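To: structure subgroup
Subject: Chain for Friday's discussion

All,

I'm putting the inputs and outputs inline so they're searchable in the archive.
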Amino acid sequence: MNYKSLVLVALLSLAFLPPSNAQEKVKKFCTISYGGNYSLWRNPRIDYGQTKRYTPIKDSVFVQKLNRVEAIENFVQALNYMTGLGWKYEGNIPLANSDHPEFRVLFSRDFDPAELTEGK
């Protein structure tokens, strides 16, 4: 068997190996909410699964960047800011409450399990 044939056999055998799960990503979601009452139309609220004592994201700098969304007064700027952080627009979630209309925008982002506190 010559060298070229050996290389060809090796490449073909590598092509049929099952893919590794080592780089498996985890999809997480977040929403930006506008509305509810007059003051909330000026500044959005962000929900990425956090509570006062818990955040699903390990990187505190990234969490600070997410929390800056609540200081953005312009709706389009907030959307552009989120896409700049790597979040992908998924759609709108209108909430039908005529007394306090609210509008939510859904985003998603793929994370490495090591970037998350729960790892999944």
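Points worth raising on Friday:
The mean pLDDT is 81.
Residues 25-115 form one domain.

D.
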